[in-house]
Amino acid sequence: MKTRTRSLISSLVIMSFLFLLNTGCKKKDSKNTATGKDVYTIAVISDIHYMDPSLWCDTSTAFKIFVTFDQRLPAESDAIMREVVQELINAKPKPDLVLIPGDLSFDGELVSHNKVAVYLSELTSAGIKVRVIDGNHDINFRYAVSYLGYDTVPVANILPSDFKRIYTDFGYSDAISLDPASLSYVSEPLPGLWLLSIDACIYDKDLAYATTGGGNIRQATMTWALARLAEAAAKGKTVFGMMHHALVNHFTDQDLLYQYNVVQRSTTVSDSLMNGGLKLMFTGHGHSTDIVKKTSGNKFLYDIETSSTVAYPCTYRMITYIKDSALIISTIPITHIDFPIPAGLTFQAYAEQRIQCAVDTDNAYFYTKPPYNYKPDTAWRLARRMARALMAQMAGDEQILSTSEYDSIEPTINLLGAGFLPIRTNWLNLWNDLEPADNSLVIFLKSGASYKK
């Protein structure tokens, strides 16, 4: 029933948009209006962090300790992947294209990558095109391990060449252009639409830095990408971008407070791509449902981030693409998986509870260490407050609904002194949602205007 209702609403929105579009066209131009197969459905699933079931067991001490601190759902990842694949195959309308902006494996395990490719083949067998790009957890990741006993045991990870081989049917085999300097490529998954997939991951020189999650677009890759944008403009192609790391800050000072979430030199890089003609970039990495818009004169660039399927809020995007005209963006929560959930909890409540516990534990430990050195009870109070802000930002369209939530921060400053000010700044930035809306949005591709659906 939910799927039918969602489909009806989407159809009404599309029909209204097409009516407005057609009424502005002369009769002789009617063949160019957005009708028939000029309307496509695109799904975006991100940060699926798939862990093959052979890598863990629930009696493992190492696994029990790991899930206490980690914000993802490794044990549930197989059930989540099965559910998402089936939802996409059975969706009405069924997606024409699925985009996956990185972190396909949990922590780079070869066995996990191979299984993801099997799942993606189910989508292509159902007539759905799939395009992927790598994330920071996918290649040369040094924490590729199994959790089967008291300690973790290293397992095989993959090299860049392995990534291209494993996912050859999901972007590389029919690429229009391959970047010699990285795993970046351009494909034309839909008529007239070029997908500029940019590899911004660090895996070739400094593996220690790569493990922290930082992103960097190589200069040679930038030169190649700008040349492809110029080529697309000359050929009259629409271009969508896809990369793992954020291209634009999704909240104030994100590149300073969470520097590994945003690509290096983000201002310069985003300016160059925007001035080169790029208007949309689909991203992941931060596990948040968030959309931001950058402008300069009459140019604009939207960074559309999709949350992780295996971390609260456990959502994916369904987008109606009206060719060369508009995007109608919806966010779909995963509400059920074939996995034992504690009685009385929905899957969404379970996922929220799990991440709340992990963030609380992780942050509380962090605040007891330098430079803060807070006592455990104080660290726990701060951790819970920060967790609420972080989870609100991850869910999107965040706003402080309780005045007590906001007012409680000032006494904390008086109690903890100036050392708390950086935490307060971070807390306020997370609650301050930048425009536009995050979960439901209509974007007009020619003007850059948007409105909440």
Tell me about this structure:
With 453 residues, the chain is of the alpha/beta class. The chain folds into two domains: 2-27 and 34-336 and 436-452, Metallo-dependent phosphatases (Purple Acid Phosphatase, chain A, domain 2, 4-Layer Sandwich); 348-431. It contains 14 helices and 16 strands. A seven-stranded mixed β-sheet has the order 3-2-1-13-14-15-16, covered by helices on one side. Strands 6-7-8-9-10-12-11 form a seven-stranded mixed β-sheet. Strands 4-5 form a two-stranded antiparallel ribbon. A hairpin with a 6-residue loop joins strand 6 (177-178) and strand 7 (185-190).
Query: In CATH terms, what is the architecture of the largest domain?
Result: 4-Layer Sandwich
List SSEs in N-to-C order.
HEHHEHEEEHEEEHHEHHEEEEEHHHHHEE
Strand content range: 15-25%
Into how many domains do the coordinates divide? 2
Determine and state the CATH class of the largest domain: Alpha Beta
